[in-house]
């Protein structure tokens, strides 16, 4: 039987028009240094239409790639909606990438236009000096800076373009499977890989994370996405908050903890999302300064594993820290760790520090070495694999076949799934240590060691062992003034992990090397171990 | 540019599997008379799989229509998921229809199988006696009753079928535009018209109503859909609650107010939805009996206009009554009247009594007599028209062309849209009174007259007038023992509506005639006026 429902595609322009027309009086608050600017969705919506027309005026058409090199600003928010709504593709450049990688992805994505913040024109100029802006025809500067760029590139001022553009538009009906936005993964190996979100996936992701099972934003919320908008769609928060009519607080380039604490205290957001490092900083800051985190009904940690000890620390300030897990490849939200009602306080902490349980629209499975699906028993460790309309099925310009297993995305993460779809990540597949046929989790060893009062940083990786195939090597950095002792650390660990997990190999380093995006560089550590730089 | 996202269809089976696997320990509570039965989603999920296999065992295949003639029961819930998940079409029969109409829709939809409650076998038998079950091959009885049916129909017991069926299934991948479910409108004119929801529309509607902008269900909720499951998918609450892992309370056939008050008091639901008549009853009952409505975070009224006075009455019991507006043609939810934060208490009452503002995924416009779109100013009255993936674009077996305007569904409702997408319905288009070129709202006249302490029922409709073209005629029913006076009613009204709205024509009746589904039958009133039965 044929259904009778209307054939209406799921488009980003529909998300935009909903927020603009149903929540015209909600506000976007831009906090730049000490200046707070507040504008209604109505006014910001006007900018979106003008930007869309301005892009058309300089020749942007369906399928053209328009990149942003921007912090969390109203102009970036306008680009989030304007670019896909005219059928073009928004490419959010990760400004923390090395200029070589930036150049690579600008060329690989075929960026024709780049919208850049005044504070980032030098970053863009550095890419230009490498000769990697060859396909770029237009640069639009938000603010007053003048970039040094190859002469062939036409430079525009954002404000001037908008002033000259029409405030009226009829959005095109875009096939929902068309690309709407583009993010590149910051892979620790090889070149970054591009994920092209469709209009359909962005629309569905917005609804999925807007459910009561996830963030459940409404017009009673004031959403402060600390997570940068160049990183995995800022977890989809700008889209979801816009559709819900939540006020949106944008903190520009300011990620210092004192600044964030002040924004939370003064602007009283109900929801915020940040990496564990920033939550650690917000905890420390609040122990020495007067802050008010009481407005937060939703405090989400993501990007790296969250420890139970950090959950407990934030609880001292009345903040219930929860965890979201996602990937660039997955729009990004996969799981969210809100505790079920009736959970005991200590269980709740454990739950909150888990990756969380699967949000509507996502399917997950755990697959063993032999390719067979493992049970959801919370014990069976295997690779977590994902399927759904918000999960990528390939990469730009490559099918990335080895990243998929019968249509399911291989996350490269080792983990377990417990009853009720609670996922706990144990390790990166490539970092997991298989000792005597069983997995040792470097993530859990690192988390346990991090709780030692004298440990500043720790990285664990597997090294060859004649008897067990692999055994863990722990690289530890002492806090300033502290002296670490291997026997004491082993004793400390032995109360926290299984006996056979205890490392026999230890290295004490002045610091852990980092990748360009600030993640621990275990590849570097491995090569230092191989060439003898690390003595054990 | 081609997007890289996975091509995964939006299927009812995905909604089912999410709730079953992510929320296995949530419960379905069945309240039948004084017996409360509680079963986990895990156990109910098992029934769904067995029912799906049982239907296949008796020969049900993709596209076959499986009807239900059921109250709000676990078996009905199982059918909600089992039937569409195997690619068949669920047809929820409105058991309140006259047997002629039931026979018409059973034949029109081509029902092959009917699942019937034991308490409703006589209703089904009556349709059989009309010879209108000719296409029905199987009847599945939930419970122990034995229906008198034509000999050609095979009769099965629900419990026996499930016992014999396998508990393992692999769901087919169903094209998302395929029909998943079928509801017939209870039109006051002509034959009922069928709306066939697609898998896509049911999936999207579930997400839409699950957002924080609408009901925002989570596993902290306990959802009690008083609204019958044969009526417009019970507003989509069973699907949304299942996906969210909310406990689901099913009240079977018991719609008496004392029963409902007891369920709310004893089972402590967080959310419930019912028609204004029942809310009026719940108010009255609570004034004379000890009840506890304090568990309700969400108390939704729908199906008929909600008056501000009823909102105020429920507020006396601590219940914040909100309004949802929907139609069979629209999945159904269109608008929801949750007040924005910072609204004054009296404004909040006004808002709560409005139809509400548009939920994500729905587009609305208001169109004047000349076919031009009117502004969202809260003043310009025109027909409300709708567009979206959860809105029907036709009717089963007919394009219903006059029900559409350039792809938009014509609701047949006269209303206004205010800033922020707040819709207020003023009248049915066919009921609206055009007096001297301006609209008079019968809905508002009826609401104002209902507030008079001696008025039990009221119906207003337009009659021809030599000077103004049309003028309102008010038909009023007095409360038992009360005597109504026309002059007093006019004086009462004149403080509440514009002077030119005041009816000159009044009729005092013993009761207002009703349609088979309990709506005021204005067609009957008009004919009584024409043939002189009503004397003015």
Automatic annotation (TrEMBL), chains A, B:
InterPro entries: AMP-bd_C (IPR025110), AMP-bd_C_sf (IPR045851), AMP-binding_CS (IPR020845), AMP-dep_synth/lig_dom (IPR000873), ANL_N_sf (IPR042099), ATP-dep_AMP-bd_enzyme (IPR050237)
Membrane-traversing stretches: none
Stretches assigned to the AMP-dependent synthetase/ligase domain: 18-395
Residues covered by the AMP-binding enzyme C-terminal domain: 444-519
Domain of life: Bacteria
Keyword Ligase: yes
Molecular function terms from GO: ligase activity, forming carbon-sulfur bonds
Pfam families xref list: AMP-binding, AMP-binding_C
PANTHER family: LONG-CHAIN-FATTY-ACID--COA LIGASE (PTHR43767), MEDIUM-CHAIN-FATTY-ACID--COA LIGASE (PTHR43767:SF11)
Name assigned to this protein: Fatty acid--CoA ligase
Organism the protein comes from: Gordonia asplenii
Lineage start: Bacteria, Bacillati, Actinomycetota, Actinomycetes, Mycobacteriales
